[in-house]
UniProtKB/TrEMBL annotation:
Catalytic activity, reaction form: UMP + ATP = UDP + ADP
All residue ranges annotated as the Aspartate/glutamate/uridylate kinase domain in the record: 10-220
Residues reported to bind ATP: K15, I16, S17, G18, G58, R62, T166, Y172, D175
Family classification: Belongs to the UMP kinase family.
Activity modulation comment: Inhibited by UTP.
Keyword set includes Nucleotide-binding: yes
One of the record's GO molecular function terms: UMP kinase activity
Binding residues for UMP: G57, D78, T139, G140, N141, P142, F143, F144, T145, T146
Cellular component GO terms, alphabetical: cytoplasm
Function comment: Catalyzes the reversible phosphorylation of UMP to UDP.
Protein name: Uridylate kinase
UniProt subcellular location: Cytoplasm
Superkingdom, taxonomy of origin: Bacteria
Annotated organism of origin: Humisphaera borealis
């Protein structure tokens, strides 16, 4: 994405699920997937857009699922999931910096040897100086997802939009895995998402975005260049514009 490329947003919050760091059904961090994400993020930053990234940790562990399947309390399992997001954040930071983009990892839990604490004013200052910030460890609290973190941080840093990068093309009117005739929605409202219980983000995150009128775009990360297309204002995925 060249520096003079068109862009619709000045400051964005990009939410990348942990599964984005490996192939479908894979585990951990795969070099090719990591570099693809990093290069797209670098291109966005070099276009002049201020970028904050919230990373998930599902490529290593999902707290809720792990707690159900094992004998570990949900709170502990969620903290384990937060540590998984730190792994992804550090990998993304190093790869982006190797590509020439100054990047800072900011964590909601204390891991001072490898990451800064999340401080809102410091985060905004990093963005103003042209640094990408990668936000790790969710909200720092168990029982809250990284989707909720994305909504919260977007409001805190006054982001213009949340871009949720997923493994599907956007929001469907029903589960496309169960209904082969499911229709992709190009536009939707938060009220519609809540009413039909469309699985795009958890209900806490959706309600937060609706209350604070934060725009959201859901799109497919695995299609090369999609992040740049969304930033440029192309009709990619599903857009939710608060009314």
């Amino acid at each position: 994405m060249p520096e003079n490329a068109p862009r619709s947003y000045k400051r964005i919050l990009l939410k990348i699920s942990g599964e984005g760091f490996c192939h479908e059904g894979g585990f951990g961090i795969e070099a090719g997937e990591l570099k693809n994400i990093a290069q797209q993020c670098v291109d966005i930053c070099k276009s002049g857009v201020e970028l904050a990234v919230v990373v998930g940790g599902g490529n290593f562990i999902r707290g809720a699922t792990f707690a159900e399947d094992g004998h570990i309390p949900r709170a502990t399992a969620d903290y384990m999931g937060m540590l998984a997001t730190v792994l992804n954040a550090l990998a993304l930071q190093e790869t982006m910096e190797a590509l020439g983009q100054p990047t800072r990892v900011m964590s909601a839990i204390s891991v001072h040897s490898v990451a800064e604490p999340f401080i809102r004013r410091r985060a905004v200052r990093h963005l103003e100086k042209g640094r990408c910030i990668v936000l790790a460890a969710g909200t720092g609290n168990p029982f809250f997802t990284t989707d909720t973190c994305a909504a919260l941080r977007a409001h805190e840093i006054a982001a213009d939009v949340i871009l949720k990068a997923t493994k599907v093309d956007g929001i469907y009117d029903s589960d496309p895995k169960k209904n082969p005739n499911a229709k992709l929605l190009t536009n939707a409202s938060y009220a519609e998402v809540l009413e039909k219980q469309l699985r795009v983000m958890d209900l806490t995150a959706i309600t937060f975005c609706m209350d604070y009128k934060i725009p959201l775009v859901v799109f497919n990360l695995r299609k090369q260049g999609n992040i740049a297309r969304v930033v440029a204002g192309e009709n990619i995925g599903t857009k939710i514009v608060p009314v």
